[in-house]
Amino acid sequence: MKHDKLISETQISSRIKELGQQISQDYCDRSVTLIGVLKGAFIFLSDLSRALSIPHMVDFMAVSSYGSSTSSSGIVRILKDLDYPITNQHILLVEDIIDSGLTLKYLLNMFYSRSPASVAVCALLDKTNKHPDEKLADYIGFEIPDKFVVGYGLDYQQLYRNLPYIATVNNVENNE
Ligand code: IMP
Ligand code: MG
């Protein structure tokens, strides 16, 4: 599939180092659990975890918001719930990408209902102009334009997650 590189491997790794330092500082006096949203966040979470200098736990949740099309339905299906309760825990939700923000909002509501001590969000990519009036993440790797991207965990029809960089693809189905 024809694709154009948007963010290089080097840019990703240096930004993750910065995020890791920032998060390690912010949580230096609290124990935090990283919650990765599968599948898209699996590569980002594994690199972010190694960029943290503080002890932390890791848990995963698997959700499906897309089927095989390329725009969010707002309906989130929980395919796998967390292994551990999050009551009174400081949690950092690790997302691959925020597009409309619907998936994230759904997950945040679900987490808040379980009474955690705090919830913050770290997203590798944010299509900020899709939700101009709302700041949805506390930590953002890169703000990107409203284009469909693949690589570094992100897929198109379950493929291309293995690209070590982020690339834009043209001519994917777009329902908007
Ligand atoms: P939202 O609910 O519109 O914010 O969509 C969030 C989810 O849709 C992400 O967690 C991704 O799984 C998927 N997604 C959104 N934009 C893209 C993209 O450009 N490439 C690949 N997946 C995307
Ligand atoms: Mg995702």
Can you walk through the features of this model?
- The chain is an alpha/beta fold.
- Helix content is 22%, strand content 31%.
- The protein has a single domain, classed as Rossmann fold.
- It contains 3 helices and 9 strands; from the N terminus they run βαβαβββαββββ.
- The strands form 2 sheets. The chain has a 6-stranded mixed sheet, with helices on both faces. A 3-stranded antiparallel sheet has the order 1-9-8.
- Helix 1 (9-26) crosses helix 2.
- The two termini are 22 Å apart.
- The model has no long low-confidence stretch (mean pLDDT 92).
- Inosinic acid is lined by residues 40, 65-66, 72, 95-104, 148-150, 154.
A few lines on this structure:
22% of the residues lie in helices and 31% in strands. With 176 residues, the chain is of the alpha/beta class. It has a single domain (10-146), classed as 3-Layer(aba) Sandwich (Rossmann fold).
List the helices and strands and how they pair.
Blueprint: E1 3-7, H1 9-26, E2 32-38, H2 42-51, E3 56-64, E4 77-80, E5 90-98, H3 102-112, E6 118-126, E7 139-143, E8 149-150, E9 166-169
Parallel strand pairs: 2-3, 2-5, 5-6, 6-7
Antiparallel strand pairs: 1-9, 3-4, 8-9
Bound molecules: inosinic acid (IMP) and magnesium ion.
Distance between the termini: 22 Å
Average pLDDT score: 92
Helix content: 10-25%
Question: Spans of 5+ residues with little confidence (pLDDT < 50)?
Answer: none
Oligomeric grouping of the chains = single chain
Q: Count the helices. How many?
A: 3
Structural class: alpha/beta
Q: Profile the largest sheet.
A: 6 strands, mixed
| Ligand list | inosinic acid, magnesium ion
Order of the strands making up the biggest sheet = 4-3-2-5-6-7
| CATH fold topology | Rossmann fold
SS elements, strand count: 9
- The CATH class label is Alpha Beta
Name the shape in a single word.
globular
